[in-house]
Amino acid sequence: MKNKANLKLDWCSYEAAKYAVMNWHYSKAMPRSKLVKVGVWENDKFIGAILFGLGANPNLSMAWKLKNTEVCELVRVALNKHKTPVTRMIAISIKMLRKLCPGIKLIVSYADRNQGHQGIIYKAGNWQQDKVSYDEMYLFKGKKIHPKTISDRYGTRSIPWLRKNIDPTVKKIKSLGKIRYVYDLRQKH
Fold this sequence. Notes:
It is a single chain. The two termini are 28 Å apart. Strand 4, helix 2 and strand 5 form a beta-alpha-beta unit. It contains five helices and ten strands; from the N terminus they run E-H-E-E-E-H-E-H-E-E-E-H-H-E-E. The protein has helices at 14-24, 86-100, 120-124, 147-154, 159-165; strands at 7-11, 35-42, 45-53, 71-79, 106-112, 128-133, 136-140, 143-145, 171-174, 178-184. By secondary structure, the protein is of the alpha+beta class. Strands 1-2-3-4-5-10-6 form a seven-stranded mixed sheet, with helices on both faces. Strands 8-7-9 form a three-stranded antiparallel sheet. It has a single domain (7-134, 176-184), classed as Gcn5-related N-acetyltransferase (GNAT) (Aminopeptidase, 3-Layer(aba) Sandwich), CATH 3.40.630.
C-alpha cells in the first residue's frame, strides 16, 4: 500500500505562489495577470501552488463566444516533490475556484511540448484536448524564449533592434508548439 500524504489545499499569498513558481516551475516566471492562488501542503509542509489567471491571450474567451470574466487559464502548476497525484490537487483547486468565482464557465491550460509535456495531467483529469498551436520562439542569449517575454522585457520583438541593442545572435526559431486543453465547467465530469 502506498504511503499516503496528508493533503491540504488553501488560498496562499502572492509571495508563497511566487516562491513555488521560481523554485519548482520550469518557466521561473510569475504571470502578470490577476491571479487566484491555491497553495498545496503535504504533511503540513508547503509543496507548491496552483495558479489560475487571465493568461497571455486577452481574446481567449472569444473562441467559445464567452465573456472574458467567464474563462480563465490554469497558468501554473508549480510543485516540489509530492506523493499526491497532481490530478487530485488540480481537481480540488478547481472546486475552490468554482466557489470563489461562480461565473467561470471554462478553464484552459496548455501543455508545452518544448518542455516535453504532453498533457498527461489534463487527460487524466478529463480535460478535452482542443488544438495544437505552433508559436515561434526566440533563441535569445542561448535560451529559447517566448516572444511575449521578449516584448515584456524590451518593449519590442524587432530582431534588428534586439541584435543591435541586446543580443547580436538573437533569431526566431520554430517551436514544437503547445497543446491546448479545455475543462468545461458547464459539463458534468
